[in-house]
From TrEMBL:
Molecular-function GO terms, alphabetical: 2-alkenal reductase [NAD(P)H] activity
Domain Alcohol dehydrogenase-like C-terminal: 56-189
Protein name: Alcohol dehydrogenase-like C-terminal domain-containing protein
Key word Membrane present: yes
Length: 234
């Protein structure tokens, strides 16, 4: 039984399309795609770690890495998010970084043979813990450092010497550099969506008045997936 009129259906589907355009077929999707495939230079079977993994970008990076045949572990800040990573997005393992008193040891548990690729969303203590766990010729794609954005003084990183003796490549990137390659991204991602190979979770707040709280919530992990604020549905 269809409960929508034709007009309502039209509004509903154009709303869905706008939501998609802001999420997996938009900026976060492109960030995940170019950050992973171009900056990380991944190979089948490699060991991939993603921080802030349930976020708009991280959830896609993990799924792209699984499609490539990698072993994938993500971290996030709640049990709900950890369950999502393992049960919806198909990560091999996931852990709640807030419950790990020693991040270095936690990473050693999940990556006894080391990390080939670290997709960096968090920075600070997390980056410091990752460095000693990197494998020879590992790659770190620096997408963001959300833990540092609101600090008066950024935290230091102390384990940088690892970069030398393990020949690790650390490379930052900004998604706008890849906007001219949007058709290439769509050629990849649209079939994935059509064939049900990619899952995506959004977190929608209704009403412009909830915009400030939605923004602030990103920094305490209140969002699950891409945070969107609906100003109007028509
Ligand atoms: N380079 C680029 O072109 C580009 C483009 C888009 C985004 N970015 C960056 O990529 C990163 C991820 O963005 P996104 O849109 O995927 O994220 P998002 O959906 O906005 O989610 C942010 C998540 O970060 C985690 N977080 C917040 N504060 C944290 C802290 N102090 N320590 C650890 N985790 C924290 C929270 O999850 P938990 O509950 O897991 O803590 C939060 O839900 C951000 O750093 C963003 O600035 C870069």
């Amino acid at each position: 039984m269809c409960i929508f009129s034709y007009k309502e259906k039209e509004i509903f589907f154009s709303f869905q399309l706008i939501v998609c355009a802001f999420s997996f077929i938009g900026m976060p999707g492109m960030t995940a795609y170019f950050g992973f495939y171009q900056v990380c230079s991944p190979k089948k079977g490699e060991h991939v770690y993603i921080s802030a993994a349930s976020g708009a970008v991280g959830q896609l990076v993990g799924q792209f890495a699984k499609l490539m045949g990698c072993y994938v572990v993500g971290s996030a800040g709640s049990k709900e998010k950890v369950d999502l990573l393992k049960n919806k997005f198909g990560f091999d393992e996931a852990f709640n970084y807030k419950e790990e008193p020693d991040l270095n040891a936690a990473l050693g548990r999940y990556f006894p043979e080391g990390i080939d690729i670290y997709f960096e969303n968090v920075g600070g203590k997390m980056l410091d813990a990752v460095l000693p766990n990197m494998r020879l010729r590992g790659r770190i794609a620096v997408c963001g450092m959300i833990s540092q954005y609101n600090l008066d003084k950024p935290e230091g990183v102390f384990n940088l010497m690892t970069v030398v003796y393990k020949r690790v490549r650390i490379e930052g990137f900004v998604v706008t550099d890849y906007y001219d390659q949007y058709p290439k991204f769509l050629d990849f991602v649209l079939p994935c969506i059509r064939e049900g190979k990619i899952e995506y979770v959004e977190d929608i707040s209704e009403g412009l008045e909830n915009g400030p709280a939605a923004l602030v919530g990103l920094f305490s992990g209140q969002n699950v997936g891409k945070k969107l604020v609906v100003v109007a549905r028509e």
